[in-house]
């Protein structure tokens, strides 16, 4: 937990503990009391004088809770704070906002609506840096000097480095845009900022090394800070410094990927929050359904035509593709090798619980990324840093796929003791729509009617527009879908099964879609199932080893389930797992998170039914399976968005003209790639921001 605002102590009034004095005689004690009385009176006079002076010059010194650190061309404010104890990651997975048990059955069997109300407000989290901050610049130079000349992790000396730290007043206007477009659905803003060691040039020398100076925006009115931070109406704003959220923190961090690797540690953030960079804006009013609803789960925004390969990045891999490539390599080692789509550079919804789960699966990769102080390195260093937001989105999609296949192969078809024989093979093949010749009741194991099935994705009504609008409204998501449309749901299978090397769009299974355009695939019995005698081995074979088998199995099961629900996936309703003799009954208190193994390599995990559900307590396998499936629900959404770059004065003017004339776009990203004329670009872009988001927030200096 970070220190409260009471820990932001004015430097000039930092408490000082005097050493104990030896015993004094009575006359000395009386003299001391008299001297103290005079001293207290003098101090009271000074405090009164100071208060009057502060009132007279309040435009120059707004509050004692910050420090003015002046350079000839810069005046910057900081919040002093004491380093908290090291952040300890959660050792137990946290539950997501769960669906009620009383509607899970109808939801998964028939596709009936199931949700919780009311829909909680969302939090927003920004990362930000002030590149013109003198302490930022000094810390960056000092950090770079600690690297050897041949260290691959030393910062790059490319001139493009400047764009990572330039400021065109984006943060202030990004926050204003959210207030203008999303205020009714927002609880709190959290700003993540850098912090620095106390410089030797500060006049107050009583601070220990456990104190840091936290960066704050120059436009923030520190005089309006309360115990809970700042507020604009019902929307709160607070600042969390990097030292207050890193598990292992050595000094100032300049690497956005390292900062993002610690997002699961941000304290007191909502279960679902929207992650923002300072170059992201809301151009039009939005509704919560663009990010999350309890009825459909998290809303992911992905680009199917741009995919990232599964191979590990090389030194030649450019820029952000290194982090995405490393992340997809890790995902491929765990969930099967495949290309995965680009996560769009716009406002992103994050599940705190599922991000923490992803980190628990890949702890070394997240921890390693957090130690790298610079993003663009000279080497570049290897292995590359993980891209946390890419990892988070695809982790959810892959855990949903994994859950479907495990529930079917292990919890439904396999025996309780994990055996997989002729009876299980027959049931599996018939579940997929295949035929089996032979009378099972007469003891005849029978034989396959065909060795290969051609599967064409069936019609699904999960995302019919009228149906979605009705359910979203009933679930309490005010504003409906707004300009967002849902294009794929985890209730309809696996989104990437037909993606390959990229497609123009995700598959549509709606009734009005031409059947000939729907994905088709083949399941070969010998390739996918033959020779395996354990249900958990069948699962790992089709899910990871030969992932094309699992993709087609899911498509077949969705078709067999009908137009709604996924009844063909679920275990029988009377299937129960009995406790192992000698074990204690399961604790009947608050329910923990249900999940499959967290091993980073699927070959090191035990996926047997008994291992996954545990030895203690009698449980309904069907109910446990539905709770597992609901943990990873998602939809892929499409919201009108644009990505623009600022490169030079002439091009910047064209960009702002284009944005001003676009009446459809909702989510805007404007990237700083300025090559020359930065002063002119800044003037043009700041004026554009003021025209569109000119209303100051209550926490800004007037």
UniProtKB/TrEMBL annotation:
InterPro entries: Stealth (IPR047141), Stealth_CR1 (IPR031358), Stealth_CR2 (IPR021520), Stealth_CR3 (IPR031357). GO terms for molecular function: UDP-N-acetylglucosamine-lysosomal-enzyme N-acetylglucosaminephosphotransferase activity. Residues 121-143 form the Stealth protein CR1 conserved region domain. The chain crosses the membrane at residues 37-57. GO terms for biological process: carbohydrate phosphorylation. One of its GO terms (cellular component) is Golgi apparatus. Pfam families: Stealth_CR1 (PF17101), Stealth_CR2 (PF11380), Stealth_CR3 (PF17102). Belongs to the stealth family. This is Stealth protein CR3 conserved region 3 domain-containing protein. It comes from Wolfiporia cocos (strain MD-104) (Brown rot fungus).
């Amino acid at each position: 937990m970070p220190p409260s605002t009471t820990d932001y102590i004015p430097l000039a009034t930092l408490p000082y503990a005097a050493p104990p004095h030896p015993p004094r005689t009575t006359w000395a004690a009386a003299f001391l009391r008299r001297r103290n009385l005079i001293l207290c009176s003098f101090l009271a006079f000074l405090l009164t004088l100071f208060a009057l002076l502060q009132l007279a010059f309040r435009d120059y010194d707004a509050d004692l809770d910050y420090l003015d650190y002046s350079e000839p061309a810069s005046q910057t404010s900081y919040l002093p704070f004491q380093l908290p104890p090291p952040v300890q990651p959660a050792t137990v997975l946290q539950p997501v906002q769960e669906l009620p048990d009383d509607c899970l059955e109808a939801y998964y069997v028939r596709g009936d609506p199931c949700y919780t109300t009311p829909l909680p407000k969302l939090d927003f989290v920004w990362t930000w840096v002030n590149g013109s901050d003198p302490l930022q610049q000094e810390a960056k130079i000092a950090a770079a000097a600690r690297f050897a000349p041949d260290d691959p992790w030393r910062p790059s000396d490319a001139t493009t480095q400047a764009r990572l730290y330039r400021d065109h007043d984006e943060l202030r206007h990004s926050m204003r845009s959210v207030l203008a477009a999303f205020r009714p659905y927002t609880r709190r803003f959290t700003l993540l900022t850098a912090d620095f060691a106390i410089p030797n040039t500060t006049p107050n020398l009583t601070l220990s090394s456990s104190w840091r100076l936290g960066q704050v925006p120059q436009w923030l009115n520190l005089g309006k800070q309360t115990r809970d931070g700042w507020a604009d109406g019902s929307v709160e704003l607070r600042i969390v410094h990097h030292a207050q959220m890193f598990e292992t923190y050595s000094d100032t961090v300049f690497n956005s990927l390292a900062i993002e690797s610690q997002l699961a540690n941000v304290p007191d953030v909502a279960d679902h929050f929207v992650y923002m960079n300072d170059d992201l804006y809301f151009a039009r009013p939005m509704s919560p359904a663009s990010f999350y609803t309890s009825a459909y789960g998290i809303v992911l925004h992905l680009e199917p035509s741009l995919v990232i390969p599964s191979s590990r990045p090389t030194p030649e891999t450019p820029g952000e593709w290194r982090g995405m490539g490393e992340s997809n390599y890790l995902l491929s080692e765990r969930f099967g090798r495949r290309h995965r789509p680009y996560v769009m550079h716009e406002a992103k919804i994050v599940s705190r619980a599922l991000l923490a789960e992803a980190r628990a699966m890949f702890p070394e990769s997240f921890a390693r990324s957090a130690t790298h102080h610079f993003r663009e390195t000279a080497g570049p260093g290897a292995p590359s840093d993980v891209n946390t937001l890419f990892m988070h989105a695809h982790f959810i999609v892959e855990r949903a796929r994994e859950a479907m296949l495990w529930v079917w192969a292990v919890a439904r078809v396999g025996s309780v003791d994990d055996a997989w024989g002729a009876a299980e093979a027959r049931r599996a093949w018939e579940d997929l729509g295949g035929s089996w010749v032979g009378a099972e009741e007469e003891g005849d194991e029978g034989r396959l009617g065909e060795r290969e099935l051609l599967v064409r994705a069936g019609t699904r009504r999960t995302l019919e527009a009228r149906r979605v609008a009705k359910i979203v409204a009933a679930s309490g998501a005010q504003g409906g879908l707004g300009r967002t449309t849902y294009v794929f749901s985890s209730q309809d299978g696996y989104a990437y099964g037909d993606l390959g090397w990229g497609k123009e769009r995700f598959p549509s299974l709606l009734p009005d879609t031409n059947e000939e355009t729907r994905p088709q695939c083949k399941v070969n019995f010998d390739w996918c199932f033959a020779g395996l005698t354990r249900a958990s081995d069948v699962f790992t074979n089709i899910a990871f080893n030969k992932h094309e088998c699992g993709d087609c199995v899911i498509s077949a099961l969705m078709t067999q389930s009908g137009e709604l629900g996924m009844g063909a996936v679920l275990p029988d309703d009377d299937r129960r797992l009995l406790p192992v003799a000698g074990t204690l009954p399961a604790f009947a208190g608050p329910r923990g998170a249900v999940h499959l193994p967290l091993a980073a390599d699927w070959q090191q995990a035990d996926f047997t039914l008994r291992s996954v559900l545990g030895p203690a307590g009698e449980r309904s396998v069907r109910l446990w399976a539905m709770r597992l499936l609901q943990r990873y629900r998602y939809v892929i959404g499409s919201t009108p968005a644009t990505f623009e770059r600022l490169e030079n004065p002439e091009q910047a003017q064209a960009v702002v003209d284009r944005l001003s004339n676009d009446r459809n776009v909702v989510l805007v990203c404007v990237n700083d790639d300025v090559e020359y004329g930065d002063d002119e670009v800044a003037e043009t872009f700041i004026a554009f921001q003021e025209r569109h988001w000119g209303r100051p927030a209550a926490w800004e200096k007037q």
